[in-house]
Amino acid sequence: MRAAASLACLTLLAACGRSTEADAQSALTFSPDLAERFAALPRVKADSPQARAINARLDLRDALDRESRSECLAMKPENDNVEWERSVEAPMTGPRFISLLITTNSYCGGAHGNGEQTSMTFDLSTGETIDWSTMLPQTMALPRYEATAHWPQLLRSRSLKVWYGQQASEQRRQDNGEGDCAEVLLGDEPLDAWLDAEKGGLALRVVGLAYAASACAETVLMSPSELRQRGVAAELVTAIEDAHRDGRWRRLPH
After folding, report:
1. What is the CA 4 to chain-centroid distance, rounded?
2. What are the beta bridge partners of residue 154?
3. Beta strands in 124-157 (DSSP E)
4. Cα(147)–Cα(58) distance, rounded to whole angstroms?
5. Phi, psi values for residue 123, rounded to 5°
6. What pLDDT is attached to residue 178?
7. DSSP 8-class letter at 185
8. What contacts 167, CB < 8 A, 6 or more positions away?
């Protein structure tokens, strides 16, 4: 039994010791689900003004999603197919920045269900959501939409969108031989961005595509070497590399 457990650990986590070490280094603490298929957002461990400010934002997001879930499930007596679920991942858990990926899938009546993925990236030194215009060059960060309670700061740089469209289309062809999405991705829909320590780069994904085109919303990674070439702040690139080296991420089993 003990041997089987050890083998399972090696298979699922690659190294149990490293996973335990990464959790110990994480700036975040994780809690059980808030309800069935409703993953809780983590909280920052520290007791500081910055940590309290971030945790207040996470409290607010949990409250908003509780309300959305309740409104959706209230439709269930009229429609047995109604459902609402949320999963959470932490692609970067420190040391300077944390990024969360929040995915909600729901069907609350109508022609089709709704799936949304949003990110939250915080600067632990300030207690604020990251302002991409302070970390990225203007060619990548401007213009942009400011963050709201439900959405991060979204990027509307035309040159960055063109690069993303080329990368996403090529990635889609290589992964599954699907058709070209380049034309679909030439629209004005903005980009969400977050830090991915596991893959080691800046992740980008288009948001707001029409339902019929949603399959084209690939997640594309910009590597540290390209980030440096583009003039991204050295502190951001170094933080990604340090987090990648130290295993500072957590993919939650939801």
Report:
1. 33
2. 145
3. 128-129, 144-145, 154-155
4. 14
5. -100, 110
6. 62
7. G
8. 218, 220
Left (φ > 0), alpha (ψ -120 to 50) or beta: where does 208 sit?
Answer: left
Contact 127, 107 (CB under 8 A): no
Q: How far is CA 122 from the centre of its chain?
A: 12
Structure tokens at 253: 């089993």
Lookup result for tokens 């942009």? 144
Looking at residue 12, its amino acid is: L
**Domains (range + CATH), the chain:** 2-246 (3.30.565.40)
* Element housing 227 (H / E): helix 224-229
Instruction: Spell out, as residue ranges, where the chain has pLDDT lower than 50.
Output: 1-20, 254
- One-letter identity of residue 68: S
- Burial label for 216, CB within 10 Å (0-12, 13-18, 19+), is buried
> Which single residue is written with the structure tokens 């994480």?
26
E strand or H helix at 160 = helix 158-176
Q: What's the distance, Cα to Cα, between the start and end of the chain in Å?
A: 26
Residue type, 227: L
pTM: 0.88
pLDDT digits (tens, 9 = 90+) for 43-78: 999 999 999 999 999 999 999 999 999 999 999 887
